[in-house]
Amino acid sequence: MHYWKKSCITLSLSAMLVSGCSVFKDDPDTRIQRQQVALDIPVDLATPRQPGKYDIPQVASAAGDVADKSPVLVLATASSSRITDETEKLARVMFERNDLTGELIPFLQREISDYFAAQNIQLNATDSENLSFETDWIKRFRTEGFWFWQNAKQLDEARYAINIEPKPHGRTAIVTVSLLEHRYFEQQAKLSSAAARDNEVMLLNGLINQVAVAEIETSIANRDRVQEVALEPGLNKAGEPAFITSQSIDVTWSQLEPVFEQLNFTVKDINRSVYTYYVSYTKPSRGMWSSLMGKAGPPVLPIANDDYQIVLQRSNAGTVINLLSKDGQPLAADTIVAAYEPFVTAIRAAKVEL
Predict the structure, then answer these.
(1) Coil, strand, or helix at residue 43?
(2) Comparing C-alpha atoms, which of 212, 223, 221 is closest to residue 95?
């Protein structure tokens, strides 16, 4: 009996909720009539403003070309290249001078020339400074057939202008590629404005990649090149054995500490006013892993584990580096001569110019 009462109450509540939802709903005809009601404005009153924020303007036809694919993007793959603007409509990129490019303008001129020479495309300078160029016809083909019966059918050909715009300070330059002329032999090869820009960007990306490869080759060559060392054994003004470098005394002073680390010197004190380092020397030991891997050990000086002074002096040739005992006595000539090769090895390992 109790179950029957609960069921009746549940059914009654459900019916009320369903009927309640229908009470609050608008009849479709009522909504249409309400939306179509027009205001009756008296003659002596102004018509209220009606905002047109969401009005859709009437357009006869779409203007301009509609691209059916994503545009080709400028890829700044070279370390010296920078994109000028993400929304740039022109095919152009900025190059900055760095250690791998050297003098920027001659570097760009050489790489642009090499890029087209590798593809057997003639490039002609159009100004006396070799900053503006025009290419010969660059042809595009489509391969038809298969195996022995293949043949290439030309689709189109185009000529481009390449312009180098150096900035007055000479550290940066903008390279721009623009399409000069296009001829097509099939209707499908006709270029829209969007497709023309894509072709310009693809050619520009080829030039950027040429620069990137040249930078990598320069980096490898610099890594493999043996650094030249100007340090030489000689005599100071007092006729005592010492090292002589062509660098100035301030440059030499600033570059010695990395050399000390390679030679296992520990700097205990310095006196900048008289260009003196007070150091302690400990012969380095070759590590176990270096021995197993066959690596060369650290340079070892022909001196005992003790404290020393390294004093710099100005000279007509540059700077004199004196190696003295802790009491300020110059080391023997044969010791200086034997220490020369370890010093040169340390200078190359520290990558400093001495």
Answers:
(1) coil
(2) 212
Q: Of all helices (H) and strands (E), which one includes residue 267?
A: strand 265-271
Q: How many residues does the chain have?
A: 354
Give the type of residue at 323.
L
Residue 342 DSSP class: H
Rounded CA-CA distance 80/211 in Å is 8
Q: What is the pLDDT along the chain (354 residues), one digit of tens a residue?
A: 444 444 454 555 555 544 554 444 555 555 555 555 566 777 777 777 766 666 777 766 555 555 567 888 999 999 999 998 767 788 999 999 998 998 999 999 999 999 999 999 999 999 999 999 999 999 988 887 777 777 888 889 999 999 999 998 889 999 999 999 999 888 887 888 889 999 999 999 999 999 999 999 998 887 766 667 888 999 999 999 999 999 999 989 988 999 999 999 999 999 999 999 999 999 987 654 444 444 567 899 999 999 999 999 999 889 999 999 999 999 999 999 999 999 999 998 888 888
Radius of gyration of the chain (CA): 40
Distance from C-alpha of 271 to C-alpha of 302, rounded to nearest angstrom: 25
Angle between the N-to-C axes of helices 193-224 and 104-118, in degrees from 0 to 180, rounded to the nearest 10 = 110
Q: How far is CA 323 from the centre of its chain?
A: 44
Report the chain's terminal Cα–Cα distance, integer Å. Answer: 108
3-state secondary structure at position 18? helix
Whole-angstrom Cα distance, residue 5 to residue 13?
12
Rounded to an integer, what distance in angstroms lies between the CA atom of residue 81 and that of residue 213?
A: 12
Contact 252, 312 (CB under 8 A): yes
In this prediction the pTM is 0.53
- The DSSP line for 159-195 is EEEEEEEE-TTSSEEEEEEEEEEEEESSGGG---HHH
Structure tokens that stand for 176 in this block: 């721009």
Alpha-carbon span 188 to 68, nearest angstrom? 14
- Cβ-contact 303, 322 below 8 angstroms: no
